[in-house]
Amino acid sequence: MGKITGGQLVAKFANAEGIGAIFTLCGGHVMDIYNGCAEEGIKIIDVRHEQTAAHAADAWTRLTGFPGLAVVTAGPGVTDAVTGVANAFRAQVPMLLIGGQVPLNSLLKGGLQELNNVEIMKPITKFSATVFETERIPEYMAMALREAYSGRPGPSFLEIPYDVLASALEETQVRIPSGYRAKGGTRPDPGDVERAAELLDRADRPAILAGTQVWLCRAVDSLKALAEKMQIPTYLNGAARGAFAPDSKFLFSRSRSHALSRADVVIVVGTPFDFRLGYGDRIAPGAKIIQVDLDYSELCHNRSTDVPINADIGPALKDLLEAVSLRADRDVWRRELRAKENEILEKEREFLTSDEVPIHPLRLAREINDFLSDDSIFIADGGDVVTISANVIRTRKPGKWLDPGPLGTLGVGTPFAIAAKTAFPSTEVVALFGDGAFGCTGFDYDTLIRFNLPVVGIVANNAAWNQVRFLQLARYGPDRGNLASVLTPLRYDRVIEAMGGYGEQVVLPSEIRPALERAGSSGKPACVNVIVNRDVFSASTKSMSIYR
């Protein structure tokens, strides 16, 4: 046996964990990790900004089920990655960020890029620590991932100084841990399951609201089985989108507000009572609530819960499925909700088929939905344009919808696309950007182009930060409503063409679908720049509910 460096140890552990790629922006403090990855056959996807690296690692976890790994240099490399890590923290995504540091003998001397990275990362990670000894690198990586997956999932951070990574040891001095974290899920308390089953069996107007943890825990089949057995209308958000086929008689979307205001029992599965649910106030005051969550602290947070269940979503839904009785008499309730869905759809229909110019955002959303295949991965990156499109664009399978999550971070689109196409090179990846969001990380199209990762990107270009702009117009009037919220109507398609990708601008509704087809068949990372109506706003933006 020969010598092995700290960087090689990082790569060996990553390979043993099944991590097939790292996302990075090169830096001298961490370069030995690249050497190790090359030896282990791990892809090195180097990007243009560390925020992109962190977002890509987040998406890798969501898509593959294996932990995403981002590697950044010391100081500003770590601080540039903070937004991506914070986004993963709020979205409950287990991933690992490794950051560099000055050599141990230079600590606190003012070395290049020296910063207290560990303390910066503590508030937005499950685990944040410095590795001081080369032989303990695998042990620390095991600890970091164990913490990332414990209870409420989230990111972990390891700082590894330059000399700790570069130092070489005899291979006999180190051990790559195995069996260092449990893979099974925590089962619910049987009494809680029994009480929940009793509520459901007696319910006349039950509803299910299922979120990201359903996909994270790979509990999609159990969710569908429960809805079918109990004949329960189901609403999906976050990564749970696509868990039901678009034509499922149990899947609803547009009638959510009506359902939650009328339901007598609501099962909230793997999604918090945060702003998206009005902190729990959007559920009828008299409704009985069953809440299932990985995170004990999330139970009963903002809204009292009749049956709080702290457990892995998979075992919880399986136990509940066995405990409930077969119900086939809820047709009246489902018909009421389907009628509401159709009523709202009819109000939207003229916009879904509108030929107006500038293009109505709902027409764009409908064209994108029709363009998607059964296997397409769809990425949503934007403010109002994504909000207005969310009930129209539907993925056909679970795990195919990616959005930032509750932090509402703009700029996830290109990084998520990089991760998606790296993980699944033969799968179509489609991303919808607001033009403001595209400006955040759009330059990383260069990464898509360098690694030959063809995706179809659509920029809904209204030359404004429209979610904020509406609020400003409503509060201050037209004289000050456009302050700091108006952009230049740039030709983003030409920017991508200049990089070496495919670009096309669309101004007529009839040209949307042909442009998407040409972009998809170009074999290149593509940008379709669609000019949309600046004066159309989503209902939630107009109600100002996101700021309440």
Write the layout of secondary structure elements.
Elements: E1 3-5, H1 6-17, E2 21-24, H2 31-40, E3 43-46, H3 50-64, E4 68-72, H4 76-90, E5 95-101, H5 117-121, E6 127-130, H6 137-149, E7 156-161, H7 162-166, E8 168-170, H8 190-202, E9 206-210, H9 212-216, H10 220-230, E10 234-236, H11 256-262, E11 265-269, E12 288-293, E13 307-310, H12 313-323, H13 331-352, H14 361-371, E14 377-381, H15 384-389, E15 401-402, H16 413-423, E16 429-434, H17 435-441, H18 445-450, E17 456-461, H19 466-476, H20 492-499, E18 502-506, H21 512-521, E19 526-531, H22 539-543
Parallel strand pairs: 2-3, 2-4, 4-5, 5-7, 6-7, 9-10, 9-11, 11-12, 12-13, 14-15, 14-16, 16-17, 17-19, 18-19
Antiparallel strand pairs: 1-8
Helix pairs in contact: 1-2, 1-6, 3-4, 3-16, 8-12, 10-12, 14-21
How much is the radius of gyration in Å?
Answer: 24 Å
Characterize the overall form.
globular
What can be said about the biggest beta sheet?
6 strands, parallel
> Which structural class matches the secondary elements?
alpha/beta
The DSSP helix count reads 22
- Distance separating the two termini: 62 Å
Low-confidence stretches: none
* Percent helix: 25-40%
Percent of residues in beta strands: 15-25%
* Main sheet: strand order: 3-2-4-5-7-6
Mean pLDDT: 95
Describe the fold and architecture.
- With 548 residues, the chain is α/β, with parallel strands linked by helices.
- Helices cover 40% and strands 16% of the residues.
- It is built from 22 helices and 19 strands.
- The strands form four sheets. Strands 3-2-4-5-7-6 form a six-stranded parallel beta sheet, with helices on both faces. It has a six-stranded parallel beta sheet with strand order 15-14-16-17-19-18, with helices on both faces.
- Helix 1 (6-17) packs parallel to helix 6 (137-149) and helix 3 packs parallel to helix 4 (76-90).
- It is globular, with a radius of gyration of 24 Å.
- The chain starts with a strand and ends in a 5-residue tail after the last helix.
- The model has no long low-confidence stretch (mean pLDDT 95).
